[in-house]
Amino acid sequence: MGKLRSEINVKEWEQLPWYDLLSKMGLESFNWRGLETWNELMNIHKFPPKSKILIVGCGVGKSAFYLAEKFDLNVTGIDIAEKSIEIAKQTATGKNLEDKVKFQISDAHELPFHKNEFDGVFTEYMAYFLDHPRAFKEFHRVLKPSGYVAFNELMLESDIPKKKLNQILEAGTLFEEIAGFKLNVPFISDYEKWCTEFNFKDIQVHFVKKKLNLRDLFQLVGGFKNFRKITKIMLYLWRKSPIIKKKFKIQRKVKWIVFQKRSTAKYIRPTICIAQKGD
Ligand SMILES: C[S@@+](CC[C@H](N)C(=O)[O-])C[C@H]1O[C@@H](n2cnc3c(N)ncnc32)[C@H](O)[C@@H]1O
């Protein structure tokens, strides 16, 4: 811990927005079913090599690199989290992929791109934060004619009992205290509705087949060595900062309802929804 004491300026960490804090700790991904979910998307629709893809809410860019390296796609990642984008850019330099994978800070609701620029617009574990009408309009605008929007997301099943839905909604509201925005998991039918409303066609919904395993869990945290580093930093911040400790506690509660507590989590399905831009 002595080394951490000299390395970590607790006050600085307390100022970081939630996702920047997690990225700085070393977390690399939030997709609980792992990178292979992109293989499932590519099985539904094969984006040809060199396709221009926008990943909205890309975090530190793990999926952006995966898509570029495995499928030879040209990827742009955007996120509002400044530290995450800084880390993503450093990784691109380290991997010598700056020409193929680009990152910039920007908001999903006001994309800094021209109309008809991308062959695909993807989201991953972030669309529950969006103002959907505004975002859908933007996704439609920046897509080329006949381009595809794809949501690799958690979505709610329609048969959820009211009481369970309320628990999830409460957890989502609680999340606002740490992230500054609510976590508002939409129904599968909401995606279908928004796609239709915002002029997308051929909507396909696919339940993610890939199950979570230990290997994926370590992938989320960037390997075992990184996992140990993250745990150490977390414990240190937990002990030294009541502000961050409170955030971790809230996160634990929200995670419990959304991912772990069977009676609520079973209604939240990792799902891919893909649709083609209409005329
Ligand atoms: C749960 S993380 C997911 C990160 C990454 N997609 C992944 O699956 O690992 C959600 C991300 O969405 C970003 N985000 C939230 N609202 C956003 C917005 N309006 N525009 C762009 N990014 C946003 C957050 O900063 C965060 O990096």
Automatic annotation (TrEMBL):
One of its GO terms (biological process) is methylation. Pathway: Lipid metabolism; Phospholipid metabolism. GO terms for molecular function: S-adenosylmethionine-dependent methyltransferase activity. It comes from the Archaea. Its EC number is 2.1.-.-. Keywords: Methyltransferase, Transferase. InterPro entries: Methyltransf_11, SAM-dependent_MTases_sf. The keyword Transferase applies. Residues 56-151 form the Methyltransferase type domain. PANTHER family: PHOSPHOETHANOLAMINE METHYLTRANSFERASE, PHOSPHOETHANOLAMINE METHYLTRANSFERASE ISOFORM X1. This is Class I SAM-dependent methyltransferase. It comes from Promethearchaeum syntrophicum.
